[in-house]
Design a protein that fits this description.
By secondary structure, the chain is mostly helical. Helix content is 39%, strand content 7%. Pfam families: HxlR.
Length: 152
């Protein structure tokens, strides 16, 4: 089910016909993607998100509220029953490839050669391989081998 059909509050879309623009309208600010990143890494509570990101309480409250309203996170009772926790929805989980691709871009372009940085590893401890989009025939895709087909 798409976010468009799950009761997302009516947004003033930046570019209503562009999927990239709509995605950025939903998660395109710095803090939203960092909250999603930390949820993917196991953060569940307000306190955990704040500690990991250093985000101000008022901004974190706003981002969590928006991510829940847009169907990327859901709130549920924590196992203790004393607090609420935030968990990724299916739409939130679907951002994994986006966060991974952004991470890999950052590894290539945001660090000096040899500069230390975190590494995403699989369950066996091996670094996650580079994502490389391919076409239906298996060839690598890039800006020279793709184009946007307008819907109208």
């Amino acid at each position: 089910m798409s976010l468009a059909t799950t009761g997302v509050p009516n947004l003033d879309w930046t570019d209503p016909e562009c999927p990239v623009a709509r995605a950025l309208d939903l998660v395109g600010d710095r803090w939203s993607l960092l909250v999603i990143r930390d949820a993917m890494d196991g953060a569940r509570s307000f306190t955990e998100f704040q500690r990991r990101t250093g985000i101000a309480r008022n901004i974190l409250s706003d981002r969590l509220r928006r991510l829940v309203a847009h169907g990327l996170l859901a709130q549920r009772a924590a196992p203790s029953g004393r607090r609420q926790e935030y968990v990724l929805t299916d739409a939130g989980h679907d951002l994994f490839a986006v966060v991974l691709t952004l991470r890999q871009w950052g590894e290539r372009h945001a660090f000096a050669p040899g500069e230390a940085h975190s590494v995403l590893v699989d369950r066996h401890g091996a670094p996650v391989p580079e994502i490389a989009p391919t076409g239906s025939d298996g060839t690598l895709l890039d800006t020279d081998t793709t184009h946007v087909r307008k819907s109208r």
